[in-house]
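Subject: Protein record for review, amino acid sequence with backbone structure tokens
How to read it: Take the token row as a discrete description of the fold.
Enclosed: The protein record, placed directly beneath this head.
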Amino acid sequence: MNGLRMTTRGALGLDPDELVACVSCGLCLPHCPTYRVTGLELASPRGRIAAMRVVDSGAAPLDAVFVRAMDECVQCRGCEAACPSGVPFGHLMESTRAAIAPRRPRLRRFVETLGYRGVLAHHRVLVAVSWLLLVAQRLRLVPRRYAATLPRLDMRRLALRLRVPAGGTPDVWLFTGCVMDAWMRETHIAAARVVRATGARPAVPGRGGDCCGALHVHAGRTDDARRLARRVIASMPGAAPVLVDSAGCGAALRDYGHLLGTPEAAAFAARVVDISSWLAQQPPLPLRPGGGRVVVQDPCHLRHVQRDHAGVRTVLGPAYELVETDDDALCCGAGGAYAALQPALANDVRARKVAALARTGASVVCSANPGCTIHLRAAGLEVRHPVELLADALEESPR
């Protein structure tokens, strides 16, 4: 290349400079959950990039074997944190999924369009579907294949109300999103309580802030993700920080500059911060010590993508005895919709994580992502969000 930037793109539309950055050193292998489970080269970041190269160049077809290898990636991006060459594996995988998406079977494309465009992008529809799901769970109508990948809904949680003003000129925005606000609103309620304890005035997004598009990007639905990103940016105007209590949403919001490629998107992305990281920068909260032993399970999109996981330990340390796992923060296998689409691999990956969590001796797991929470709760673990633990420990905190 002799210092010149390559611009020609191949069959997958991948960035040539990103594609050639991998030198196949193999340092990513121990950090890849699917490689650890299967031992297959094609199930590793190095193997997947090698496959991308030959398909992108036209030397190999975009066939079922290639599609399966790409689909079986959980997109934890632990490989990025370990890579000495700085290979942007996440961007490569997102572009590859986008190239695969139009080639999916017609029925799958229809179902995905219904879910991604008709449900996730419209919060009232998602809430209505959640109530229908609650009824289906009570009547045991949910197929066994999907039952374990969905949260066990209950009327009390679905009926909770987040009493935070929408719009205006707040001190901080609290991004609520789609799945978090439908299924885990208690986390948002705790987040608002903790933010108010710092003296800040939170607000939730105005119209259009229903969904960040993270799941859409993972599925290769880039155009849908861009449309949602523009809506989200417009829903939280001004310069106030955008606090996020979902690691997956935070990673997506902070990547808007790359997704949209505009100065406005880059400026918005710079305002996004994980809520624990923001709290760590505020004056210490009045917390009661002696909250018990808690093991911190870092969501991949907080630790490997945002590289912003230290705040959780800073804010929880005064109130709880925190312990760490001995598995180098490997993925739990949730991966957004991954657990539903690849249940066998997701469960194998989770089994390793559950064993690592059990070795700590802690009875409570702390995790800042809805997918991780749902996936680990399905294995019988007690999982709490950091802001819920903080709200519990606030002195004279209203219940």
Observations:
- Residues 1-6 have pLDDT under 50 and may be disordered.
